[in-house]
Design goal:
Structural class: alpha+beta
Helix content: 40-55%
Radius of gyration: 43 Å
Order of helices and strands: HEEHHEEEEHEEHHEEHHEHEHHH
Number of helices: 12
Strand content: 15-25%
Shape: flat
């Protein structure tokens, strides 16, 4: 990529140099004298010829001559005028074919821009393809040892293997299934938009990294009531407010009792969960690969990010699912594009396989299990109350709107019609406010 940018700067400098090197008035340069080829060889100074032509043009523009028949009395049109031997000989002068590149410098810069954009597109696309395939080839054996099917395309009816699905020029997806304790995993390789020239330019000012996201899909019986998250401390407060399960169940735990770096934070529902999963080998793996590790999140009640109250009134609450989500980053902020850089996630991928087996075997104590069930029931009740209040507010708003429309229609009626309308509404309100009396009909005799 560095050689590409060197080529871009050199091309732009050449285009600007060509635009400024030529004389913009070169096509108007002529000799000091003008030679007229006829029967008489006369040399005329250019200034005299120019003044004569300008005077002739001014006279033709100022004087408008009206030709009448009386002006030609006594002249026979059939008679030819007497002419001397002074016919004009035309000399074929060479055409000036000298090119002036400065007249097309905008077009030159535009063509260079199109060429550079196309060159960057194919170069960036090939780099992303090479990095994604390098990651897959390096981790293929680890995935094959833990899953029966690695790389199913999810489209064909027959089972396919070894397919790295390309969703875009910078996003690749790998599906794996066939393991006890989970339904399957989805590995998303999200690389930088190296094929986009604008993204490459913005990368210079705001560097970003290639990321890998591993999502583990668990069935209802594969995970107990577990809510745990390990993520950078600088964003832990924001995520705790935005992610629903972390906001409802998790609280921040002290990192001192775990062998984790100080820049990481821990969120958990119970200390029993964090003590079980953040063992010494796990914390050591995270600490040794801190430049690659970004976050991990386990939840038996995962519903995604919070929904705003405006949109929540119109949509249903997402169904809670059981998920394990791991986020890793490729070090170097996109500057290191060699295939070997993709091998840095192997220790963390081994940690993912270890965590999958541990989650399926973990069981909460009876006391914490009952607390977890009460917490989830309380969240459901709070949600039902909130939606009930929102429905009541929406119904009241609709009634108020109907009354407003009726009042506008009544104002357009005459006085007598308005009086009858007010009497009718008054009787309705009295019937609603009055006590309800049940009438009984008694048959006599």
């Amino acid at each position: 990529m560095h050689s590409l940018w060197h080529f871009i700067w050199v091309a732009l400098l050449i285009a600007l140099a060509v635009g400024q090197s030529e004389d913009p008035f070169a096509e108007f340069d002529t000799e000091d004298t003008v030679i007229i080829a006829d029967d008489y060889d006369v040399e005329v100074e250019p200034s005299v010829l120019t003044d004569t032509v300008e005077n002739t043009e001014l006279e033709d523009e100022d004087s408008q001559v009206i030709i009448e028949d009386e002006d030609f009395e006594g002249i026979n049109p059939s008679e030819k005028p007497q002419t001397g031997n002074n016919e004009l000989n035309i000399v074929n002068a060479p055409i000036n074919m000298k090119g002036h590149w400065d007249d097309y410098y905008l077009e030159i810069i535009g063509l260079i821009g199109v060429f550079v954009y196309a060159l960057n597109f194919y170069t960036g696309k090939s780099i992303n393809n090479r990095l994604a395939n390098a990651w897959f080839e390096h981790h293929k054996k680890l995935l094959s040892d833990n899953f029966y099917i690695v790389g199913d395309d999810g489209v064909s009816k027959e089972v396919s293997e070894g397919v790295l699905v390309k969703e875009s020029e910078n996003k690749f997806v790998l599906w794996c299934t066939g393991r006890l304790g989970c339904e399957g995993i989805k590995i998303e390789i999200k690389l930088l938009r190296r094929q986009d020239l604008i993204s490459v330019l913005s990368q210079m000012f705001k560097p970003q990294s290639d990321t890998i996201t591993v999502t583990v899909y668990l069935s209802p019986d594969d995970m107990d009531s577990v809510v745990l998250a390990v993520m950078p401390r600088k964003g832990i407060k924001r995520l705790q407010q935005e992610v629903q399960d972390l906001a409802h169940f998790a609280t921040e735990k002290k990192v001192d009792k775990f062998d984790l770096p100080s820049q990481l934070g821990v969120l958990s529902e119970f200390s029993e969960v964090s003590n079980e999963f953040l063992s010494v080998p796990v914390c050591k793996t995270i600490s040794e690969n801190l430049d690659v590790f970004d976050s991990m999140h386990f939840s038996d009640y995962y519903t995604g990010f919070k929904i705003s109250q405006e949109s929540q009134a119109e949509t249903e609450r997402p169904k809670p699912v059981k998920r394990m989500i791991f986020n890793f980053v490729i070090p170097g902020f996109g500057k290191r594009t060699k295939s070997a850089i993709m091998e840095t996630t192997e220790p963390l991928m081994r940690m993912v396989m270890h965590m999958m087996g541990k989650v399926s075997k973990f069981k909460l104590s009876k006391e914490n299990k009952s607390k977890a069930e009460r917490h989830r029931i309380q969240v459901e009740e709070d949600f039902l109350k909130q939606t009930h209040n929102q429905r009541q507010e929406a119904a009241q708003a609709r009634r108020d709107e109907r009354k407003r429309i009726e009042k506008e229609k009544v104002q357009e009626l005459d006085a007598e019609a308005q009086r009858r309308y007010e009497e009718r509404e008054y009787k309705k309100s009295m019937r609603r406010s009055g006590p309800r009396v049940k009438q009984l009909k008694v048959k006599t005799g």
